[in-house]
Write a structure and sequence with these properties.
Blueprint (H helix, E strand, L loop, with lengths): L1 E19 L5 E21 L4 E5 L11 H13 L4 E7 L10 H16 L6 H11 L3 H4 L4 E6 L3 E5 L6 E7 L5 H7 L10 H8 L10 H7 L1 H11 L5 E4 L6 E5 L16 E7 L3 H8 L17 E2 L7
Parallel strand pairs: 3-4
Antiparallel strand pairs: 1-2, 2-4, 2-5, 5-6, 6-11, 7-9, 7-10, 8-9
Length: 310
Amino acid sequence: MVKELKSFAKINLGLEIVGKRPDGFHNLKTIFQTVDVFDIITIKENSSGSINLSGDNKSVEWNESNTIIKAFDAICKNYDVHNGFDIFVKKRIPVGSGLGGGSSNAAVILLFLYEYFKLNLTLEDLIDIGAKIGADVPFFLIGGTVLAQGIGEKMTPLEDGEEKHVHIVVPDVNVSTRLIFSQFNLTSKPIKSKIDTFMKSKDYTILENNLEKITFELFPEVGVIKEKMRALNYDLVLMSGSGSAVYGMARAQEWPGLKNRFASASVNEFVTRTIGRQNYLDRIGAWPSGKAPVFGAGIRRFESSRPRKP
């Protein structure tokens, strides 16, 4: 058996820090959106009974700390299923970019193992397993457009909006989410949610990312990218997550068609598009029929029982 899986990236359509928890973590509100940029994970059965993980990006640790290994461990150890696999990752989602590459890899492996071992698990079960690996992993089990709250564990799937073109520019810097949140100072003044307003108006221009200021202070090259992109007449220019990726978004009829505008050895650049939930699930490649199964009565709202730090 040889299986090729696609592990897609995400962007954040706005990100608001709404409070600090007693455990020191921050509560947030954001909208996750899958985009058509992906790693390729090739899986081959082997007779060793062990997992041999490797990839083409030397900056990634291909060992027990990798989210792929954590996903295998979570399934194989807890459900007493075993097999050996050689896994190779063709990495296209930049590391430390705020595009969710590691979380996406883990989620895709969970979906693969669910199908491979014919596990009697619900989507809720998989979401709980994913949340123990990382806060963003549950989103990649659903895909499309999702409102996330808390520290990311409270998810409300939203209807797919119209397809948007997305221009993503990632400077060659690995931004630590832990560092950004540790330096963020929450204002005590209540702020009206731009995300709530956006969900009613669909006006992309009002969205903001509360982590931009501190990220730009610590990593000025990310702020420089945003300033350059703001001159390109997109509907929205925003940093994704805690950085370092910055994206410009526009409707098809307004798309500037700008590619390689930032061509340089020091940046990664993608001209892509948003993808909806069914398209996302169908293209992962975890299902023999090519179509993702329907879990339960459908996707409504989920909250993992074991939230993790974002």
